[in-house]
Amino acid sequence: MSGWVVLNNGEQVHYQHPNAKPAFPPIECCLDDPEGLIQIGGALTPEWLLAGYRRGIFPWFSEGDPILWWCPNPRTILIPSEFKQSRSLSKVLRNAGFSVTFDQDFSTVIRLCAHTRTETWIMPNIIEGYSALHEQGYAHSVEVWLDGKLTGGLYGVSLGGVFFGESMFSLVSNASKVALASLCQRLTDWQFDFIDCQFSTDHLLSLGAKSIPREDFLILLNRAFDKPDRLGLWH
Predict the structure, then answer these.
(1) pLDDT tens-digit profile of 54-66?
(2) Structural domain harbouring 203
(3) Considering the entire predicted model, what is its pTM?
């Protein structure tokens, strides 16, 4: 079952039944209010998540809401080689005693991304869906350790030459920056095109991210998919 539903503001948005095969309407159907909403419903299975990411669409919703899918305009991206590493962060990377791993503890990373926020969209069904993607080799985590304890990290999805960043956390100062800096170095070495940061924040912009029109983002996305997927654990 699929169709169109009317929101409280009078806008119409596409609806997909949870048992339906993954499908999304044309990007031109994205709403202006709320900005970038394109579909309600569907599921958070690997099939649905991968179908969404390949269209530049991602899930984001609050507790008690149905699954909401978005493709905002503008879109924020970070070119890995353009990550702005301040002198203070360089000093931290050299001297603060952090160590960094990849895909060492995805389960804990995604749960800490959820639990260290006062408000979160990372509900149990999100955790289940992305954990399944991790088992299939598409979702990855970066872990930052200090004195043997997990103190920061991030997770996201890798397809072609794109890393779709989802969330990060930090239990001590600078730990999430260390995670992002380490990810950018790895992705630069592997010649990834960009990190999708989804929405803009002052913090991301200070680290080198930039906002671009959705149309330009989709062009870059399609080009990046010419590269093969880097599946499996990123140890």
Answers:
(1) 999 999 999 889 9
(2) 76-224
(3) 0.95
